[in-house]
Amino acid sequence: MASSKKSLLFLLLFFFPIFFITPSSAFNSNEEVTISLLKWKSTLQYTSPSSPPLLSWKSDPKNSSSSPCQWQGITCNEHETVIEINLRKFGIKGTLSNFNFSSFPQLLVLDLKGNSFYGTIPSSISNLSELSYLSLPRNQFHGPIPSSIGLLRNLSLMQVYSNNLSGTIPPSIGNLTRLTILRLHYNEISGSVPAEIGKLSSLVLLTLFQNKLSGNLPLEMNNLTQIKELYMGENNFNGHLPQQLCLGGSLEKFTAPGNQFSGPIPQTMKNCTKLIRLRLEKNRLTGNISEDFGVYPSLEYIDLSNNDFYGQLSWDWGRLQNLTKLSIFNTQVSGEITAELAEAQKLQEIDLSSNHITGVIPKELMDLASLRVLFLDNNKLSGNIPVGNGMLYSKLATSKGLTSRLTI
């Protein structure tokens, strides 16, 4: 009998936390979330005060619909734990300084895109340890990206573009090894790209353009072999492009205009058979365009202008069936424009001005149905503008020479 009583006592003690503590904890947790959200709401303003978006955010113990799980923009799991806060384009103005991140240990998604949030991104954001989706773009956040961001090791997407962020890219960002998308463009971020970015081997999209970044790119960027889209334009980068840029053959869009990159085109560029868009204009790159670039059947847009490229236009134009824009002006390109260029039948814009091109304008160019812009001035061309049946020729006035830019 004594043994039986001990067993019963053990079972009661063992299950006591489950039957008594757990509901209380769940209640307290739900109450904490409610208090945290309402406190934050009290600090927010709205761009349209006549129709505030968070009317459902209110507490009423007698009404089950007052649970945060029923509030607009809030999603919970089956255990009534908040896992998503999505206030995208809600017309909200405010800060995150009164947002209690520690109240949301299971939060997976935080999306505040397209509002008027301002102030800094608090370092306490690191309390969202389960977060996988962080979207804060198109707001007015300023200050640096906190180094504590590196504690969000479950992040797969981080986008903070179109804010007023400054400072440098924190090296701790290298801890976010699950990141596939990182979008930092349209900010005031300065300094160099940290070598730790090379640890983000799962990245498929990286945007750095329109910042104040500078210096050489770290060699570790060669580790980004899964990258599909890489945008680095309008910064102050110098040195060479990543030499293993297209080692994995995944690259589809690569833009780096308006920097001070120099040296040759990476040899791996020939592997970029999936390339759709390539912009390298306004740099100091060198090389023979006839040899340094491969065949890109999916290519739609290419701009190599304002560099020190040389060579001839001898690409296999018939395999560029999707090409709409070809721009290689102000380089050292020479040779003739061959009739084969017209085999890229979707061409809408061609700019080959300010080069060393000789010969005549092929008639076939004037037959291109979609061609609307043709710049060939400041070359060594001869002859007259040929007669054609395309859109461009139908709008050209008669010209005695080839001094016209030949644009509609």
Automatic annotation (TrEMBL):
It is found in: Membrane. Residues 1-26 form the signal peptide. Residues 36-77 form the Leucine-rich repeat-containing N-terminal plant-type domain. Residues 99-234 form the Disease resistance R13L4/SHOC-2-like LRR domain. SUPFAM superfamilies: L domain-like. Its main location: membrane. InterPro entries: Leu-rich_rpt, LRR_dom_sf, LRR_N_plant-typ, LRR_R13L4/SHOC2-like. GO terms for cellular component: membrane. It comes from the Eukaryota. Keywords: Glycoprotein, Leucine-rich repeat, Membrane, Repeat, Signal. This is Leucine-rich repeat receptor-like protein kinase. The lineage of its organism: Eukaryota, Viridiplantae, Streptophyta, Embryophyta, Tracheophyta.
